[in-house]
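FAQ
Q: What does a multi-component entry look like?
A: The components come first, one per line:
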Amino acid sequence: MSTNIIEVRNLVKKYGDFAAVKGISFNVEAGEVFGFLGPNGAGKTTTISILCTLLRLTSGTALVNGFDVSTASMKVRGSIGLIFQETSLDNQLTARENLQIHGELYGVANVVLRRRIPEVLGMVDLSEWSDRLVGAFSGGMKRRLEIARGLLHHPRILFLDEPTLGLDPQTRSHIWEYILRLRHDEGITVFLTTHYMDEAENCSRIAIIDHGEIVALDSPAALKAMSAQDIINLDTDDNQLAAELIEKRFGVAVRMGGDGLHFEVADGARFIPEFIASFSNGERSPRILRISLRRPTLDDVFLKVTGRDIRRQGADETEGQRMAAKLSR
Amino acid sequence: MGSHPASLPSTTDIHVPATESRIERDLQGLATIWRRELLHVWRDKPRLVGSLIQPLLFLLIIGNGLAPAVGNAIGGIDFKKFIFPGIIAMSVLFSSVFYGITVVWDREFGFLKEILAAPVRRYVVALGKILAGSTIATTQGLIVLMFVPWLAETSLSASVVVKLIPFLFLLSLVTSSLGVTLGAIIKSIQAFQVMMMVLVMPLYFLSGAFFPLKDLPTWMDILSKIDPLTYGVDPIRQIGLTAVLRSHSIQVFAVHTIGFDVLMLCVFAAILITWSITVFNRL
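Then the predicted structure of the entire assembly, as C-alpha cells:
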C-alpha cells in the first residue's frame, strides 16, 4: 500500500484557451508538510481548488485520501480541512457558533462536538474568546479560529491557501508555530501554498510552480543544494569595471543588483581572502567598499529555476490586484 | 518495540458518519443552514422591527388617505379592509425578496465559501436558504396581521389567522426562491437593490393588492396573470375578509378559485426552486 495521501497525474485546468495548470504530476506523502511555492497567477490556487473539489479539472486525475476528486467530491470534502486565502467566518456569530455550524455541516455528532469545540479553541489559544462575536476579532485571531475550524472534524489533510497573506510578520510567525505544532499533535498532512520564501523553508518538500508547471520539486535543503554555490555580494567604487574584471579573472557570471554585484563561487570562505588579495594588487582595480557572503536561500533557487525574482513580482502583482479591487468597488 | 513515530490517525479515527443515511445527512445540513439564518435575524432585531414599519405605514397612510376618495366604490367595503390582504402579501414579498441579499452578503464576507466547500449537496444549501427566507417572511406577515384589526378597523378570528398561515408560507416559498436565486446570481449589493426596485414594485402593483383586477386594459390583465403575487393576494383576501363579508360579496373581488390559486403558487414555487438549485449547483 502506498503512503501517498495525494496523487496527482497530468492535471490540466483550462479556462477557454488559457491553461492555468499545464499537466502537472506529483505525490504528497502522509504526514508531510508539502508546500506549493510560486508567484501570483502561477496556478497555486487553481490546483488547491481542484484538490478541494471547488473547481473541476479539465483533464488528468487527482486522488485525495484515495478518493477521486472528480467522482467522490463529498468524500474528499469530508476528509479534508480547508483554510482559504480570505477569511470565511460568519462575523455575526460567536467563535463557538461558527465551529458548531461547521461541525454540523461536516456531519460530526453533537456528543463529539461538545468535547472537540473547546479542545480546538484551546489549541489556538482562543478559549477565552469562545462566546464573543467573530466580527470583533483581529486578523490574526480570525486566522487562528479558521485553523481551529479546519481541524474540527479530524481531517487527514489540512489545505491552506496563502495562510498568512495580509498578516503582519509577527502574526505570520505565530500562525506558523500553530500550524507546525498542530500538525505534530494531530498527526495530519499539511498542503499549503505560499509566495513567501521564508515560509516555504518550514515545509518537508516544496514544489515550485511557475506558469502552470512544476519547475522543481524537492526538500528545501535539496533545492538549495541545486544552487550549491555560496553567493558573494560585492560593492566597489566602479562596479561596471569590477564586473568585467571578475568575469575575466574568475570565469563566473556576475549579476548587477541594486546593492552591488552578485556572483556565485564554490567555497566562499576560502574565495574571499584570495579575491581581495588579487583585486588589490591589480594595476587598475576598483576599490572594494563592501563584501559579504551568504549561503543560498530558496529565493536563489527560485531565481535560478524561473529566471525571475519572486519577491519583486509577488509584491508588484499583489499591489496591482489591490488597486484593481479598489477601482472595481 | 513497535513505537510508532508521531502516530497518524487510522481511518477509524475519522468522524465520517458512515452510519447515517444520505437523507439524514441532507436533513441535518438543511437544519443547520436554516438555523444559522434565523440566528442572524434574531441577532439583528432592529432590522426585524424596521422591516415591519414599511407595510404598517402603507396600511395606515394609504389606507386612511385613499379611503374617503374611494368611498364604497370597491364592492361596497371600506378601502382599508380591501387593501389589508395586499399589505400582508407586500410584507411577505419585500421581506423574502430582500432576504436574498443575505446570499450577496455571505459572498462579500467570505462565508459562502465555507458553505460551498462543505460536504453538503448544493440543493440542500439552496433549500436551506429558501426555507429560512420563507420562515422569516411568513413570521413577518403574521406580525403585520396582528396589527390589522387595529389599523384596518376590521375583525380577525383566530381560525382565519390559522387558515392564512399555509397561504402565507406558500407565497413566501415562491418569493424567497426568487430572492435567493437573484442573490446567488447578482454579485453586488448595489445591483441587488436596483433589481429589487425594478422587479419588486411591478410585481407588487400588478398583483391586485391596491385595486381589483377587473376591467383592466388587456396588457395589464396579461401581466397580472403572470405575476405570482396575484395568486397570493387573491386567496389571502378571500379568506381574510370572510369575517366581514358574506360569501356573495367576496365574489366581487375574487379573481380565481382558491384551489386554482394554490395550484398556480405550487407551479411558480416548483419552477423557481428548480432554478435556484440549478444556480447553486453552478456556484
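Q: Is there any commentary attached?
A: Sometimes. For this entry: Residues 30 and 124 of chain B are 6 Å apart (CA to CA).
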